[in-house]
Amino acid sequence: MEASSATVNDSLVGRVLAGKFQIEAFVGAGAMGSVYRARQLALDKVVAIKVLKPELATEAGFAARFKREAKAASSLDHPNSVLILDFGVEPDNLMYMAMEFLAGQNLSWLVSTAWPLPDDQIVSIMCQALSALARAHDVGVVHRDLKPDNIMILGERNDDGHPVVKVCDFGIAKLITRKSGGETRALTNLGMVLGTPEFMSPEQGRGEELDGRSDIYSLGVILFQILTGQLPFDSETPLGLVYKHAMEPLRPPIECNPNANPRLDGVVRRAMEKQSPTGHWTRSACSAPAPRRAAKCCRLARANMT
Ligand SMILES: Nc1ncnc2c1ncn2[C@@H]1O[C@H](COP(=O)(O)OP(=O)(O)OP(=O)(O)O)[C@@H](O)[C@H]1O
Ligand SMILES: [Mg+2]
């Protein structure tokens, strides 16, 4: 969250968007905008509204791209993906997305307050996130900004007794990538670092065209953090992190935390292989989709538990 965001963002409280959503309270801010709790007036229902930073709207064609990406994200109909209800651009260029309101905390908060997590909870979180990814990749949507802040752990529980997990912000990071010289390149625009270098795959750091394998790498980084309570690479600069993800050999999670489940350690190592043509779980075009194969290995870790 941004320290100065509350004052700036409070100015939207009370505003009604498209005659449909009344903003009630500021929830949190990220790289691309702010999230509010709001009320869908017709149904008298609580929803979440993500308002994009106004600076983003200055780029030509941005509103059209926003609509395209919001539409792609809204096509994801999966119990572990946040439901997108609506999106729009207001006459003053304010761009927003209405989503289901998620009552819970994000995974960053869980790891920082409850580490170490029990293995069966780790497996449940991973399998739910992978299930959302499998559906997204099936329909050609790559998340591009998977990190603990974008994984919500709800108060509500599944049949297995574990909290429901919802993945947020599918594809939104694509809004701030730009084609340049024939290749897609992550860019630093208006002083913001785009994407999150701590969780970025080597290919994303290099600015290459991405597919679902990049998400699998990022989820591997998340699992590393869940298992060890720390990040795999550390650097004072974003570029330093990008370099380490591309070049530095991974220290196995089990070396950082000898109590880590060996099978989950194996899942991290495989997900974080650096060469994407063979790594990140995809070995051939005809093999089962990577998220499903990774989920199978996580479930094996559960089977291995005493
Ligand atoms: N649908 C939602 N319902 C309730 N709270 C949400 C919802 N979506 C996001 N949040 C909360 O709002 C906070 C800010 O979200 P936001 O997506 O703006 O930032 P972020 O996830 O930290 O970073 P990024 O901009 O890179 O996604 C999140 O950390 C989360 O706690
Ligand atoms: Mg987010």
**Total count of strands:** 11
Give the cofactors and ligands.
Answer: adenosine-5'-triphosphate, magnesium ion
Indicate the CATH class of the largest domain. Answer: Mainly Alpha
Question: What's the shape?
Answer: globular
Low-confidence stretches: 1-8, 178-193
Major sheet: size, sense and barrel closure?
6 strands, antiparallel
Put the structure in a nutshell:
The chain has helices at residues 5-10, 62-74, 107-114, 119-138, 202-205, 212-228, 238-247, 253-256, 262-271, 290-303, and strands spanning 16-17, 21-29, 33-40, 45-52, 84-89, 95-100, 104-106, 151-157, 163-167, 177-180, 183-186.
Structure overview:
This protein is of the alpha+beta class. The chain folds into two domains: 3-100, Phosphorylase Kinase, domain 1; 104-303, Transferase(Phosphotransferase) domain 1 (Transferase(Phosphotransferase), domain 1). It contains ten helices and eleven strands. Strands 1-2-3-4-6-5 form a six-stranded antiparallel β-sheet. α4 (119-138) packs antiparallel against α6 and α9 runs antiparallel to α10. The longest helix is centred in the middle third of the chain and has 20 residues, at 119-138. It is globular, with a radius of gyration of 19 Å. The site of adenosine-5'-triphosphate has 20 residues, from β2 and β3.
